[in-house]
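Q: Got a minute? One more chain.
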Amino acid sequence: MPPPLADKLGQLGRYVEQLRRLLALSPEPALRESVERALERMIQVLVDCGADAGELWLTAHGAPAPDTAAAVFRELGEAGAIPEELVDRFRRHVTARNRVVHNYAGVTAAGTHRDAEQLADDAAELLRCLLAA
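A: Always. Here it is, folded:
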C-alpha cells in the first residue's frame, strides 16, 4: 500500500473514532449547539477524508482521479472495492456534507445527528473495504 494511502486510511480511522466519541456525549443544554456544529464539521471532514482515501486507492490501482467526491465513491463501487449499497449511502453523505458546508436550508440538529451516526458506521465500513481490497 502506498504511504500516502496508508496515511490517509489511518487518518480516516482516527476521524471515525473522534466522531464516535462526539456522538456519545450528552452535553448540557448550553453546549448542545456547539456539539451540533462539531458534528457538522465531522460530517465534512469524514466525507472529504473518505473521498481523498478513495481517490488515492483508485489512482494506486491505475484509475484516473475522479472530479468529485460522489464520483470517487461511484468509481470505487465500479472497481469492486466497496459494495453498491455503500456507494448509495455515500451519495447521501456527500449531499449531507454539501448541505452543512453551504448552510442550505433544512439542516436540523436531529438530521445532523442521524447523518453523523450513519456516517460513522459507513466510514468504518469504507475503511475496512479499502484495507481489504
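A: The two ends are 10 Å apart (CA to CA).
Q: Perfect, thanks.
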